[in-house]
Amino acid sequence: MKLYSWNVNGFRAVSAKEDWRWFEERSGDVVALQETKAQLEQVPEHLREPEGYSAFWLSGIRKGYSGVAVFSKPAVLASRFELPVERWQGEGRLIHLEYEHFHFMNVYFPNGQKGEERISYKLGYYDAFLDYAEELRKQKPIVVCGDFNTAHNPIDLARPKENETVSGFLPIERAWLDKFTAHGYLDTFRLVHGDLPDQYSWWSYRMRARQRNVGWRIDYFFVSSELRDNVKDAWIEPDVMGSDHCPIGLELEF
Questions:
Q1: Reduced to 3 states, what is the DSSP secondary structure of residue 225?
Q2: For 17, 36, 57, 194, which has the most beta carbons within 10 A of its beta carbon?
């Protein structure tokens, strides 16, 4: 079972580019997108539900902002949208699908770079997500992917010292990822590749950052520890263009 995750930074923009041929070339079993920035009626009909897939879309109330989507080949037993607490609803951040062997969540976690209020919102969302995942985990293991908007460790960004006071690498944000992994959620890329350096999934559009590989690894596939032996591969696809993020992948075997 091959799963992909990609923050496309605007679905209408990326799907109009040659880069979107990636979708057909990979033919993933599950393809999760973040930051779609589209209301469903704005998406051309042939792209809303690609042939061979069931499609799940969630838009934020605010147009042109946030939004997530999942295309799935395997049968989905149930679908839910957003976290189950009103405070964390409305921004179009989470799609939860239940499969035979696991609960799957595609999440676009909040960005904290617009000040203290958004950092507080981001940390609250993190905690609410962990509570939700732990409750679901009582039934089945968890697979979660998406843009977490935080680089976990110094190896996960090119300029750690320069970014210690920047949201996305603040100690308080990283501490939550410490807590998350302490609860038994495994960063599948590190599980497979160990401390392989210079591996990033997002690059600023400024200063030729991507060409120079001055990036951040803020997009992840995590699995709960019960699925450790089901992880066959995990990877990053930095050569795929079309967004300031690149796709990441996970292969599971059951």
A1: helix
A2: 36
* pTM listed for this prediction: 0.97
Nearest to 144 by CA among 54, 242, 252: 252
Q: How far apart are alpha carbons 219 and 246 in whole angstroms?
A: 9
**Percent helix / strand / coil, the chain, rounded to 5:** 30, 25, 45
- The catalytic residues are 147
In one-letter notation, the amino acid at residue 87 is R
Mean pLDDT by 10 residues, the chain (254 residues): 98 96 97 97 93 97 95 98 97 98 98 90 98 98 98 98 97 98 98 98 96 98 98 98 98 98
User: Is the separation of the CB atoms in 53 and 32 below 8 Å?
Assistant: no
Please name the amino acid found at residue 1: M
Which residues pair with residue 70 across a beta bridge? 32, 56
H-helix or E-strand spanning residue 222: strand 219-224
**Secondary structure (DSSP) of 156-184:** GBS-TGGGTTSTTS-HHHHHHHHHHHHTT
Tell me if residue 72 falls in helix, strand or coil: strand
Torsion of CA 179, 181, 183, 185, to 10 degrees: 150
SS (H, E, C) 120-147: HHHHHHHHHHHHHHHHHHCCCCEEEEEE
Angle between helices 116-137 and 171-182 (to 10 degrees): 0
| Residue written as token pair 């042109």 | 64
CA distance 247 to 4: 7
